[in-house]
């Protein structure tokens, strides 16, 4: 049985239950609970979505409707690292298309895909609020701004050195 | 020397102040003045007289917005004061500065605003990608609870207030105040019909006020220094300072706190350092992606609500996006309409189906497969979706603002794309 099919770990279950109890209405915890699952397990599988729905008193279909509305909730597996590259107007003016093409070349994937080794998922994202440092992108929780070709290459090199045993520092 | 109340304590080299440092630097004066010496209605009154208007884009009078909330004391009725920190308008990066640079200023503004409308429950709706802001807000709230600025009976006033931070799951539509409430309730973030207005029936049906971060950050300063002081900060009819910003091919893109009504030319040339060598200003969006284009010849406009409207656009968020003479205006419009089409919540048909149609037409024109009639179809969309009231919320009218103005300003570029079967700039490259 893969992690995706295994029941939610007990401590995560109790975290989600606590979130639901702390809110005025349990379903207010829907997004925080899904994000907590994702923070631990990388994404939200069907089985885990159903577990969370049960804890919040929602039907899985209802919660899936919520989960699939919000782009930061991943309903499919992603890589160990997720790159979100801004594709909005200021970054576009500052040349993000060419940099995205270069990053795709280096990773061997297109936006929306994950590298074959499972290391990196590349996603487009709307304006990241760093237009004074356009072009910009998030690598996991870290923002990289004022990107140029050399910057893209440095980040691609660091990610290429990543292995499941030893992530880059 | 110009006063910069919103950014006075912000020093990226040092990081945000803690509660004690915030107080030493002049913080907490607003909460003290409000909770010790003023009735809730007196707070609403001073904010109304200050002429403070919403800094999130719509520009609604803040005091007026608060005045619609039922007057029941916080202890007897559940009400919500919600900070809209879902900064997702493309080209906008001002609230991030306030959230990361001085989160306690927002917290103080929320306490005062909560007191004014007698709401005991504060929520910060923060966009999910603002990781640094989330860490700093979380720390600041814990600090404020530990030092008694949040919690029961603040300053012995009997008024209790606490703040919960909600990290959003994404989507631009969450910035629309009723969609934000729906999202907070753990549902798909679709806007709601009004009435009831949120001030009467908002989160879970309880009276709720949603204010932008920058709006709330102004509140403690107004309460501490008075309405006259605030009005005098502005150069024209609108009071206060404003966080302005510029992105695009300028020498120093950034954001600056300046008197409300500062001319756009001064912001671009003096603060942003002017255009980079080899680039000339062609046109601009004065306040985010959902504001209409202004021509380069209009840069002397004063950046205040009325003046920008008179020029044919909106102040919006006050952060301008510049189009230079080496960037294709059709490509820029395509990028903008891709954004709006993708971010439509899908609830109402004209927006859900119309915006992707606009995006496809623009893509065809940019790629060289566009026809002359496509310009008529684009104009149809601008005409039919542009006015408020044709769609459920302001998303589609916002999307049509750059399109309608772009069709007028860039007519020759559109025709060149169609006659030359593609983008002349790309063909020349």
Automatic annotation (TrEMBL), chain A:
Keywords: 2Fe-2S, Iron, Iron-sulfur, Metal-binding, Oxidoreductase. It is an enzyme of class 1 (oxidoreductase). InterPro entries: NuoE-like, NuoE_dom, NuoE_N, Thioredoxin-like_sf. Its cofactor is [2Fe-2S] cluster. The keyword Iron-sulfur applies. The keyword Iron-sulfur applies. GO terms for molecular function: 2 iron, 2 sulfur cluster binding; metal ion binding; NADH dehydrogenase activity. Pfam families: 2Fe-2S_thioredx. Belongs to the complex I 24 kDa subunit family. This is NADH-quinone oxidoreductase subunit NuoE. It comes from Gluconacetobacter tumulisoli. The lineage of its organism: Bacteria, Pseudomonadati, Pseudomonadota, Alphaproteobacteria, Acetobacterales.
Automatic annotation (TrEMBL), chain B:
The keyword Metal-binding applies. Residues 330-375 form the NADH-ubiquinone oxidoreductase 51kDa subunit iron-sulphur binding domain. The keyword Transmembrane does not apply. SUPFAM superfamilies: Nqo1 FMN-binding domain-like, Nqo1 middle domain-like, Nqo1C-terminal domain-like. SMART domains: NADH_4Fe-4S (SM00928). Gene3D superfamilies: 3.10.20.600, NADH-ubiquinone oxidoreductase 51kDa subunit, NADH-ubiquinone oxidoreductase 51kDa subunit, iron-sulphur binding domain. GO terms for molecular function: 4 iron, 4 sulfur cluster binding; FMN binding; metal ion binding; NADH dehydrogenase (ubiquinone) activity. Keywords: 4Fe-4S, Iron, Iron-sulfur, Metal-binding. It comes from the Bacteria. Its cofactor is FMN; [4Fe-4S] cluster. Pfam families: Complex1_51K, NADH_4Fe-4S, SLBB. InterPro entries: NADH-UbQ_OxRdtase_51kDa_CS, Nuo51_FMN-bd, Nuo51_FMN-bd_sf, Nuop51_4Fe4S-bd, Nuop51_4Fe4S-bd_sf, Soluble_ligand-bd. Belongs to the complex I 51 kDa subunit family. NCBIfam families: PRK13596.1. This is NADH-quinone oxidoreductase subunit NuoF. The lineage of its organism: Bacteria, Pseudomonadati, Pseudomonadota, Alphaproteobacteria, Acetobacterales.
